[in-house]
């Protein structure tokens, strides 16, 4: 008979690092910032879905032709040799991000990030099929019935079609989109085209439909390092606790603290109320389970006392700002890294203030200095440094793009032999590589210049090389000299377009017997 062994079960105490994410059901909101975000969505996604279909000079306006190693962008063609311009462009994008973040906070996250704009579209489709916040929560909590299957099925069908269109457009930036579309029926895509359409569709569906705010919270590196660009003069979206606290419901009719004797609280008292409210949330706030990086976690705090109506601040604790938040945080707890600065809580709170007959701005764009009543300045040294570097980089890039030579020339010496003895002559072999970056065929005349011009002679001079538009041509050339010419001699290959539109000089060397 097996012997029973007594064991002690250890309770982990609930400290697992794997916590399942609470689903966020953002409520629909309308207002100034919502209109701005919709405008950004239409503008940015409009460019994304439209650009590959535009034509410029008889070619797709934006086409990253990887097999031909050429990027076509509205009449400009970038070659691998223009890599320095691409590097400069990436630096410009990085400094634009630094500059706008230091000046105006997370503008990029709230209005322009692909994750934000696609999530916004997926949310619209979710609302069309499942309804607004309360209906979606009820639907999720309810059993699987005909209505739930139809609504969820409809949502995923819309998401799938939109995601596939997104993936198709993405591939259309790398392969001519008209041909990609024409080869859909009958299906004639190659393996890579199919893979990238499906991969990008899946990524869009997963990121914008399922993961949403988790991408910003856990996957996006920018959300993590941007705090390095923040200071107390950076524009943030913040709740004004001096005006709003102590929060609490009341009947309509009580004027704003800005218009009655109570006035604004002092900073210390206001933040004490915020802290205690975050530790002992109201029943309404508890139901919402607003998450986020609540400050001073783990510290004990006494609950707030019951305040007389006259003592209350302007926040009526309606939790609308939490219900509309796409990342599910309570902005009243202070600046949190999860906040993507979308402005939805401003719109929601302004709407509530309108209904209560109070002025807008309980939640607003401000700086931490301004909020705390300290003097601050927008134009700080870092703004000037970022601004100067950005201007210099944009200037250099613009100059570089419009002053690129339409001809690239390279000369490679024959690697097999330093020189060849041909009777009373010595010959050196070279390979001339010419890249015609223009959209027209060109003829180039090749000659050499040297201090030993009397001795060094280009074979078959004057040499004309024809290079088709946008092509690379390799041409073998030979330079000869009398056998009496010894040692190393510098020479320059001069290549000129026959219409004088381009000229290149390439340094090289001639070797005779040592
Ligand atoms: S929406 Fe405004 S009034 Fe309502 S809880 Fe938020 S801050 Fe307070
Ligand atoms: S707290 Fe939420 S709703 Fe308000 S700006 Fe931040 S992310 Fe948007």
TrEMBL record:
GO MF, one term, reads:
metal ion binding
Source domain of life: Bacteria
The transmembrane segments are: 39-56, 83-104, 157-182, 194-211, 383-402
Instruction: Specify the 4Fe-4S ferredoxin-type domain's residue ranges.
Output: 305-334
SUPFAM superfamilies from the entry? 4Fe-4S ferredoxins
One of the record's GO cellular component terms: plasma membrane
Fetch the InterPro entries from UniProt. Answer: 4Fe4S_Fe-S-bd, 4Fe4S_Fe_S_CS, Electron_Trans/Redox, FixG_C, Ig-like_fold
What Pfam families does the entry give?
A: Fer4_18, Fer4_5, FixG_C
**Keywords, alphabetical:** 4Fe-4S, Electron transport, Iron, Iron-sulfur, Membrane, Metal-binding, Transmembrane, Transmembrane helix, Transport
Record carries keyword Magnesium = no
Protein name per UniProt: 4Fe-4S binding protein
Q: Which organism is it from?
A: Thermomonas fusca
């Amino acid at each position: 008979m097996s012997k029973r062994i007594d064991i002690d079960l250890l309770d982990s105490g609930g400290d697992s690092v794997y916590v399942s994410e609470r689903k966020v059901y953002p409520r629909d909101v309308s207002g100034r910032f919502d209109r701005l975000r919709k405008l950004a969505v239409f503008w940015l996604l409009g460019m994304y879905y439209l650009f590959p279909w535009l034509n410029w000079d008889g070619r797709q306006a934006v086409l990253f032709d990887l097999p031909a190693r050429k990027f076509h962008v509205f009449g400009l063609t970038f070659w691998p040799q223009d890599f320095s311009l691409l590097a400069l462009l990436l630096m410009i994008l990085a400094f634009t991000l630094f500059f706008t973040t230091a000046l105006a906070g997370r503008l990029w996250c709230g209005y322009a990030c692909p994750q934000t704009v696609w999530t916004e579209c997926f949310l619209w489709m979710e609302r069309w099929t499942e309804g607004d916040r309360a209906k979606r929560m009820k639907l999720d909590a309810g059993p699987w019935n005909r209505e739930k299957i139809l609504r969820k099925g409809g949502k995923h069908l819309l998401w799938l079609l939109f995601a596939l269109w997104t993936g198709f457009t993405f591939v259309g930036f790398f392969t001519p989109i008209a041909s990609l579309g024409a080869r859909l029926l009958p299906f004639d895509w190659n393996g890579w085209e199919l893979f990238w359409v499906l991969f990008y569709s899946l990524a869009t569906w997963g990121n914008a439909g399922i993961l949403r705010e988790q991408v910003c919270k856990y996957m996006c590196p920018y959300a993590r390092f941007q705090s390095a660009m923040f200071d107390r003069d950076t524009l943030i979206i913040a709740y004004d606790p001096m005006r709003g606290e102590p929060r609490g419901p009341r009947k309509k009719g009580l004027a704003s603290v800005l218009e009655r004797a109570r006035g604004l609280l002092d900073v210390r008292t206001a933040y004490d109320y915020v802290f205690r409210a975050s530790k002992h949330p109201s029943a309404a706030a508890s139901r919402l389970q607003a998450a986020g990086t609540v400050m001073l976690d783990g510290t004990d705090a006494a609950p707030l006392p019951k305040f007389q109506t006259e003592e209350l601040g302007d926040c009526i604790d309606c939790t609308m700002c939490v219900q509309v938040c796409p990342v599910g945080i309570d902005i009243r707890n202070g600046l949190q890294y999860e906040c993507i600065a979308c402005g939805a809580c401003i719109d929601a709170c302004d709407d509530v203030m309108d209904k209560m007959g109070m002025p807008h701005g309980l939640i607003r764009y401000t700086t931490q200095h301004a909020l705390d009543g300290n003097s601050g300045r927008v134009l700080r040294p870092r703004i000037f440094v970022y601004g100067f570097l950005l201007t210099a980089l944009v200037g250099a890039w613009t100059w570089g793009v419009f002053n690129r030579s339409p001809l690239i020339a390279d000369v490679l010496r024959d690697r097999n032999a330093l020189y060849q003895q041909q009777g009373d002559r010595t010959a050196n072999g070279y390979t001339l590589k010419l890249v015609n970056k223009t959209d027209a065929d060109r003829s180039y005349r090749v000659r050499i210049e040297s201090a030993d011009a009397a001795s060094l002679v280009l074979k078959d001079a004057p040499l004309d090389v024809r290079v088709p538009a946008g092509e690379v041509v390799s041409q073998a050339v030979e330079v000869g000299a009398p056998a009496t010419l010894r040692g190393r001699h510098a020479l320059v290959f001069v290549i000129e377009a026959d219409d004088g539109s381009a000229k290149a000089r390439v340094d090289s060397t001639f070797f005779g017997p040592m």
